[in-house]
Design brief:
By secondary structure, the protein is mainly beta. It is 11% helix and 31% strand.
Length: 143
């Protein structure tokens, strides 16, 4: 059996001659933290928004999603999400040519964001308006 050299510095505990001496206790050691139960319970999972109605309008490049968490815009592959607590108001209307849905979010600090989704066929725009109004009314009732 060959004897291996001791590990180099940084491996394992320090040799006894270099270890600090434990402090002498005349009574019980001091309690630095309250005693923990033998098995800690797992923290509760993060709160998920309650399930509710949602709205989705999508075309080849853009999308608008309204759900329990807030409003999301996707424009050419980039997504911006607005949570309900940071939204002052949401506005929507038809584009001037009547071929697209324009949705705007006004942030609490006054910033304004807009997303335009083409409605194909054009009659889809008339389907989106009542759906969007109902979903927004669910999460942001007027009153």
């Amino acid at each position: 059996m060959t004897q291996q050299p001791p590990p180099g510095p940084g491996f394992g505990p320090p040799p006894p001659q270099y270890a600090p001496e434990p402090p002498p206790y005349t009574s019980a050691p001091p309690a630095y933290a309250p005693a923990q139960p033998p098995y800690a319970q797992a923290p509760p999972p993060p709160q998920q928004p309650a399930a509710g109605p949602d709205f989705l309008a999508v075309d080849k490049r853009n999308a608008v999603v309204v759900d329990a968490s807030g409003v999301a815009f996707e424009t050419s592959g980039l997504t911006v999400e607005f949570r309900w607590p940071e939204i002052r108001s949401v506005h929507y209307r038809a584009s001037p040519d009547g071929k697209a849905l324009m949705v705007a979010v006004v942030h609490m600090d006054g910033r304004f964001y807009e997303c335009v989704v083409e409605a194909r066929p054009k009659t889809r725009l008339q389907e989106w308006f009542p759906q969007l109004a109902w979903v927004l009314g669910h999460y942001r009732p007027v009153g």
